Structures are given as C-alpha cells and as structure tokens.
Amino acid sequence: MTDPVDDDPEYADEKVAHVDLPPLTDPTTVPPDETDEADQ
Amino acid sequence: MSISGLDRTQRIAARDLTVKAALLGLHHAQQIHYTQGPQRWEGIQHKLVAAKGRFPFHADCSSFVTWCLWNGLHHTFKVDDIVNGTHWQSGYTGTLAQHGRQVIHLANVLPGDVVLYGPAPTFEHTAIVVGYDHKIPVVVSNGSEPGPFLLPYNYRGDGPGGGGQFRRYI
C-alpha cells in the first residue's frame, strides 16, 4: 500500500486523546543518529 | 478498510497503546541500550508488554518503533505484521518503508504514525510520533546510546520535506 492516506475517508476526523508530554530534548544536545541497517 | 483492519475505536486504543509504549521507553532511557545486534528484538521476542510496565533493555531505532507498534497492534488486537512484513521477527527502515501508507500533510499526522528520515527507498533512521507541541508532531527517537529522546519531528533536516516521510500502519 503506497498511496497516501490523507484523503482516505476511513481516517477523516479521527480524534485522539491529548497526551501530556514531558519537556522536549534540545535537539542540539542529541548525538547523531546511527544509520539503521538491515538484519544480517 | 483501515491499513491495520481495525475499526475507529480499536485504532484509537491501538494508538494509545503505541504511544504509551514509546513513553515508557522514554522514561527508562537510561536502561535502554542502543544496539543493532540481535538483542534489539528482545522486546517482541520476550513479549515485553508496555501496559505491564515491561520494556526492552536493548533496541535500535527501527526495533524500538516496531516494538511500540507491536504493543498497539499485535498484543491486544492480534494484527499480523503489517509493519515490516516479517511476522514480527525483524525489520529496518527499508522494510518499514515497504509497508503502511504515507501521510503527506502535516495536519493529518496522528500519534502512532512513524517518521522515516534520510533518502528513499531504504531511509536511514526512524522515530514514532507520540503527540504534538504547538501543532508540531513530536517523536520518540532511539538513534543512539543516550536515547530514546523526545524531539520535534524535524530535529533532523532529512525528515518529511527533506527526503523523509511520515507513514501510518494503524
């Protein structure tokens, strides 16, 4: 399934509960992400 | 029909379970060690259910995202592996990219959606949306040993709008 989901009526007006989140991390303090690799 | 086959009420529950798994990992970041070795799948292999307070001690970005979605889709609703297509046994950004459906517009992104970073078709990193901060999607990202971190989705320049994309599996 590669077609975008944006116009799919199945998901129209889907509401989700608000989630209280802790403070965000300052992105400038985050080490570079490792590059993901396929399983060997 | 939704991507997962779940109805709206089930999807809302699945998103909640997925997000709670991600936040459990975030709250235990110091106990989660980054690895790309086989231990990264222990969350699913050992059936570590976030609702019971259990989480993997080893994970990388894609196994962490997959474990979160396994909590939302499979543990409660027994959905087959529509995330990586490997019977919940393996995966990486390349298999994540081959499943689910893309979300184009930022306003349509929902908690439980996934961000793929880097160049298609295999991409290089992934994180899971857990909510919003001033209408900007916020992700939990496990891309290095100090993680997981809670970050705005665009903390890297190669996310959606820069070669990456949002994808939905729920």
SSE layout and pairing:
The complex is a heterodimer of chains A (40) and B (170).
Chain A: no helix or strand
Chain B: H1 8-27, E1 33-34, H2 42-45, E2 58-59, H3 61-75, H4 93-97, E3 101-103, E4 114-117, E5 125-133, E6 136-141, E7 149-152, E8 165-168
Q: Give the percentage of residues in beta strands of chain A.
A: under 5%
**Mean pLDDT score of chain A:** 87
In terms of quaternary structure, the protein is heterodimer
Q: Which residues of chain B sit in consecutive blocks of at least 5 with pLDDT less than 50?
A: none
- The counted number of beta strands of chain A is 0
Write down the overall geometry of chain B.
globular
Query: How many angstroms does the end-to-end distance of chain B come to?
Result: 11 Å
Count of discrete alpha- or pi-helical segments spanning 4 or more residues of chain A:
0
* General form of chain A: flat
**Helical residues, percent of chain A:** under 10%
What would you note in describing this structure?
The complex is a heterodimer of chains A (40) and B (170). With 40 residues, chain A is low in regular secondary structure. Chain A has no helix or strand. Chain A is flat, with a radius of gyration of 18 Å. The relative contact order of chain A is 0.09. The model of chain A has no long low-confidence stretch (mean pLDDT 87). Chain B has 170 residues and is α+β, with helices and mostly antiparallel strands. Chain B has helices at residues 8-27, 42-45, 61-75, 93-97, and strands at 33-34, 58-59, 101-103, 114-117, 125-133, 136-141, 149-152, 165-168. Chain B has a 6-stranded antiparallel β-sheet. In chain B, a hairpin with a 7-residue loop joins strand 6 and strand 7. In chain B, helix 1 packs across helix 3. The longest helix of chain B has 20 residues, at 8-27. Chain B is globular and about 35 Å long. Chain B starts with 7 loop residues before the first helix and ends with a strand. The mean pLDDT of chain B is 97. Chain A binds chain B through residues 1-6, 8, 10-11, 14-19, 21-25, 27, 30-39, and chain B through 1-3, 8, 11-12, 15-16, 19, 23, 26, 34, 36, 60-62, 90-95, 99-105, 108, 110-111, 117-118, 122-126, 130-131, 133, 138, 141, 143-147, 149-152, 155-156, 168.
